[in-house]
Amino acid sequence: MRYFEDLTPSTGAREPRAWLRSSRPRICLNGRWRFKLRDSAPDGVPEIGPDWGELEVPGHWVLQGHDRPRYTNTAFPFPIDPPYAPDANPTGDHVRSFDLPGDWPADGAVLRFEGVDSCFKVWVNGVEAGTAKGSRLPSEFTVGHLLRPGRNRLAVRVHQWSSGSYLEDQDMWWLPGIFRDVTLLARPLIDDVFVHASYDHVTGAGTLRVDTAPDAVVRVPELGVVAEPGAPVTIGAVEPWSAELPRLYDATVEVPGETVELRIGFRTVRMVDGLFTANGQPLFFRGVNRHEHDERRGRAMTVDAMREDLVLMKQHNVNAVRTAHYPPHPAFLDLCDELGLWVIDECDIETHGFIYTDWRGNPADDPDWAPMMLDRMRRMVERDKNHPSVVIWSLANESHRGRNFGELAAWTRQRDPERALFYERDRTYEFSDFYSLMYPPLEDLEAIGTRTEDVPEETAEHPSLEARRRALPFVLAEYGHAMGNGPGGLADYQRILERYPRLQGGFLWEWIDHGLLLPGATDHVYGGDFGEQLHGMNFCIDGLLFPDRTPSPGLTEYKKVIEPVRFTGPDPLVVHNYRTFTSLDDLTFLWTVEEDGVEVAAGNLTIPPVPPGQSTQVATPSRATAGPPTSEQVLTVRAVLAKDEAWATAGHEVAWAQFVLEQPAVEPAPVAAAVVDRGEDLTLGGGEFDRRTGRLTRLFGQAVDGPVLDLWRAPTDNDNGQGGRNGVTQEWRAAGLDRLLHRVQAVEVMESGLVVRARVAPEGLGVGVRTMYHWTADADALRLTVDVQPEGEWGGTAVTPRCGSWPRVGVRMTLPRELENVQWYGGGPGEAYADSREAARVGRYECTVDELQTPYVVPQENGSRIDIRWAELTDAQGNGLRVTGAPHFQLTARRWTAEDLERARHRSDLTPREHVYLNLDLAQNGLGSASCGPPATSPHTLEVAPYTFTLVFRRAEA
Fold first, then answer.
1. What local confidence, expressed as pLDDT, does residue 803 receive?
2. Mean pLDDT score across all residues of the chain
3. Which residues have CB under 8 Å from 304's CB, separation 6+?
4. Calpha distance 584→575 (Å, rounded)
């Protein structure tokens, strides 16, 4: 059997060990390599020919003009025929030469690869050094005996498909190549280091033991420690490491000729009374799942991009990361130690594609695959064992059940009993220290919190396993699928997670969109954009960051939902500390009072010490009004950093809340104006109407068309659901909401104004909506009241599809394209929907129509502003319209229609039209996360029902 198809993890490779910062000489072999791509695996040592090109290492050849990337979610892009690879197996030969100084210590030198996808063979000066599999894991080879002074030649043959590929089906782009660093290391004198640094939360003492070379000296200068290897040292008082306060101590391990630099964090994690604790306190994860991804470089990540990820996480109140679904670049964990995040480090194992054989042949339950799986676990644990941020080892992801996980768990518990184990997909949880699920409905999560959940089928006949599972703490491995516009419902999840001690938080899916930006392109690509028949479409576009690392509205919402500081009030005003270990002394508390969005008072709040988990009451700031209030008065309180931190500067906002202190008095209704009949047209106040259709043609001098009832929106990814399941788009289409026609029944001139009666109904169905538009006017305002009454069997019959919700209820109208400047008073600054509105802050905002749009990779409904009191759309001279809600409305304005959005697959498919299309909605349906999870819950569902809403139009206030 060929080496890339056998079940041998490696040949010629050294034993796995920790990733160390050593003083020993090293040569970086990153840079430009000669490269040749072949359609299948050749034989023999690679020899450079005239048809060879060049390639950047680290890098993926499919992102550098050779072949194409492939994205699949669950399916293998090759036949399920383990352990074999197809004959058409793209193979990249990489060759580079390097100079070895004459005095360089070559004896025993080690060649280290941090990551190669998916299997490779190495030659040094024409002699084979070894082979390895395990794409996201390091491989080392002893090559000193193959080196020579002066010029040396390194050749690496990389196969895209191998037996290892059956363990690497991780919902991501298949990106072959040498994508992490390549380094030549002088022979290690300190071959390995294992730091054991625990903390006693009762006494405040730390215990340090460092297992390493027997002749080494361990030094921690700040603590005055000079110790021998393997000898425990107790330090009377240390500052513990936590994600909230990531205290690190610089240390060295020294032997003659080598010094290894370490950063030690003292912390203890253990299970106590059914809860996962750190330093004596139960942890709560406000986490994200993170794939390694860069829009141009794929998984060939730079340290700058890793730091940017973690800085953004910290700035958005994220305290934990699950390294989905493989160990990250080792520098990433150094940054987690430094900046402070709890880490679930996940092994490079996922066999998801075997769902298409009903798990027949799944490597997880085949003893022949055990050595390869255990090899991956060992390499992860040994590489990452010295990171205080890593508190949990994850055995795998979505690989069903199997006896091999027992071997992984047993080895890991023996090697590192100081950390917990995690695995979600085996429903017995026999080898996991946590009960976990992905994307459960809220009612299931509530049952788990109260320990009243249903018994899984896998443990129903095994009382001991069921008793163990029911005693485990619960962590959401994945939830809140951030695909496209969404996710919705995060606040609902958070309320339940925080209500029950058993629920120790979760990890949102996922951190970043996996869109790729190819050279010269303006659109990010996803599955199917290369003409491939088997692909996962845009299921990789599911992140809280856009592919260029711009935060999406979903991340802004998540930041608000998981704030570690909360305010309730306003009378009394209470400050709650949701942190686990630290007080609020690092924060400054500010307040402002605004009237109709204009600041009228401000100051600082004096907050007494608030220990973690405690609350304090403070005096409520206010600004008294003389007589009845004439404007809305809103109090905003904010918690900001008092000083610079490693991840943000002083003044960075951590948390905020708003409270309405006063509402304006209701003004008496003005004297109504009369309708003027001009034959073809009708005039009422500032509006001119088509007598036949009852639609506005001009409004305060502006040419307009509409407004008409609108029930449709361009479906979001979460509306569509996963693979046509679980979503609402299919129901909406079946009910004809995407093909509504309008029939005017009457245009009636009344003493009270103008009444337009219409019926809005889909082609081919008997359901409809009876709609009445009631217009009234006074000296400066034109008022519209819309009454909506469903007709027919919306609940469904034997021949009529059921439709339980509408996408939106509102009106759509067309405005001149020049009205491109938008100002509003209401929720902002970003988009918000019924179940993603926590981050919408009441204030005054302004931007252009184009800036209202959220640039999702796949166009869909976006850009709604919520709780609008009033909004103005004006031209460059300030001419235009003002719309006021009675009391509030949702605003969407764009240069294309919802139908244009619906047809577009990429942003470049959207061509601006000659008008601005304005939606003024009473409400829209919630977002949910049905792209992989539950739909919008009933409190956020826009049910089919009668509705009435009012809008007031005026000339813009120039």
1. 95
2. 97
3. none
4. 10
- Using one digit for the tens of pLDDT, what is the confidence trace for 808-864? 999 999 999 999 999 999 999 999 999 999 999 999 999 999 999 999 999 999 999
Q: Let me know if domain 285-560 sits in CATH 3.20.20.80.
A: yes
Percent of the chain with pLDDT over 90: 96
Catalytic residue, candidates 478, 557, 594, 662: 478
The two three-digit tokens of residue 387, written as one number: 């990171």
Residue 624 pLDDT: 64
Record: fold of 194-270: Immunoglobulin-like (2.60.40)
Token digits of residue 352: 């998801």
Residue in 161, 186, 187, 154 with CA at minimum distance from that of residue 30: 154
Architecture field, domain 10-185:
Sandwich (2.60)
Q: What is the largest CA-CA distance in the chain?
A: 104
Whether residue 478 lies in the annotated active site? yes
Q: Are 94 and 156 in contact (CB under 8 A)?
A: yes
DSSP character string of 290-305: ----BTTTBT---HHH
φ and ψ at residue 220, rounded to 5 degrees: -125, 90
Please report which confidence band the pLDDT of residue 671 belongs to, taking 50, 70 and 90 as the band edges: confident
Residues paired with residue 150 on neighbouring β-strands, in sequence order: 100
Best CATH choice for the domain 563-662 from the list 2.20.25.90, 2.60.40.10, 1.10.540.10, 1.25.40.10 = 2.60.40.10
Q: What is the arithmetic mean of pLDDT over 317-338?
A: 98
Q: How far apart are CA 345 and CA 337, in angstroms?
A: 13
Query: Rounded CA gap, 136 and 156, in Å?
Result: 17
Residue 559: closest CA among 286, 338, 821? 286
**Which residues share a beta bridge with 573?**
618
pLDDT at 271 > cutoff 70: yes
Q: What secondary structure, in 3-state letters, does 18-43 show?
A: CCCEECCCEEECCEEEEEEEECCCCC
C-alpha 555/C-alpha 480 separation (Å) is 11
CB 808 within 8 A of CB 942: yes
Name the H helices within 681-805: 717-720, 729-734
Contacts of 738 (CB under 8 A, 6+ apart): 712, 732, 902
Q: Which position among 382, 398, 453, 510 bears the catalytic label?
A: 398
Beta bridge partners of 159: 91, 119
Q: Give the pLDDT confidence of 557-568 residue by residue, as tens digits.
A: 999 999 999 999
Comparing 194-270 with 563-662, is the CATH topology the same? yes
pLDDT at 627: 63
Contact 883, 815 (CB under 8 A): no
The closest alpha carbon to 136, from 328, 405, 335, 372, belongs to 328
Residue type at position 597: G
All structural domains of the chain with their residue ranges? 10-185, 194-270, 285-560, 563-662
Beta-carbon contacts of 218 under 8 Å, excluding residues fewer than 6 positions away, are 208, 210, 212, 225, 226, 227, 228, 229, 251, 252, 253
Model pLDDT for residues 886-927, shown as the tens digit of each residue: 989 999 999 999 999 999 999 999 999 999 999 999 999 999
Any idea which residue has 């089906």 for tokens?
A: 169
Residue 255: pLDDT band (50, 70, 90) is: very high
d(CA 898, CA 888): 22
Tokens of residue 538, six digits: 């845009």
Distance CA 277, CA 18 (A): 25
Each residue of 447-475: pLDDT tens digit?
999 999 999 999 999 999 999 999 999 99
Question: pLDDT per residue over 609-666, tens digit each?
Answer: 999 999 999 999 877 665 678 899 999 999 999 999 999 999 999 999 999 999 988 7
Give the Å distances, CA to CA, from 244 to 331, 420, 566, 581, 891: 20, 20, 16, 7, 39
CA gap 347, 881 in Å, rounded:
58
**Is 398 in the active site?**
yes
Beta bridge partners of 277: 270, 282
C-alpha 147: how far from chain center: 46
Amino acid 80 reads I
443, 489 Cβ separation under 8 angstroms: no
